[in-house]
Design goal:
Distance between the termini: 42 Å
Helix content: 25-40%
Largest sheet: 3 strands, mixed
Number of helices: 4
Strand content: 15-25%
Number of domains: 1
Mean pLDDT: 94
Strand order of the largest sheet: 1-3-4
Length: 129
């Protein structure tokens, strides 16, 4: 393990598609980040950042809460930006005060031993419009 190591998924969704299961997306990407075997365990945060269709009004913070990776009302940047950008932070910090605020201990416990197994891609996670 090296210093503070995070993992970021930063993507733009093609306008011909929509995310049908936002909570499933946050769950899948959190578990996927934990399964990467590049020598460094994520020990600070997993970021999921998406530039999505504005009409979808996707809020990845709400999706993270619904998936159980984000403590209710612990993240203040709620809702999609005017351009459709949305993000969520799944915290993993080994710090008691952060764990109480952001649920780091629960997230690490849920992920289990690192590296985890690569999860199967959920069906109908992203679907055509």
């Amino acid at each position: 393990m090296k210093g503070n190591t995070g993992f970021t998924f930063d993507f733009e969704l093609d306008s011909g598609y929509r995310i049908a299961d936002p909570a499933g997306l946050v769950d899948y990407l959190s578990r996927s980040a934990w399964s990467v075997r590049d020598g460094y365990m994520p020990n600070s945060v997993i970021y999921v950042q998406c530039l999505c269709n504005v009409a979808d009004n996707l809020d990845l913070v709400v999706a993270g809460e619904e998936a159980g990776w984000v403590k209710k009302d612990s993240q203040t940047h709620r809702g999609a930006a005017e351009n459709g950008y949305t993000e969520v932070s799944v915290w993993l910090l080994l710090n008691d005060s952060y764990s109480k605020i952001w649920g780091s201990d629960e997230n690490r416990e849920r992920l289990g031993k690192w590296p985890g197994e690569a999860p199967a891609v959920p069906e109908n996670l992203v679907v055509p419009r």
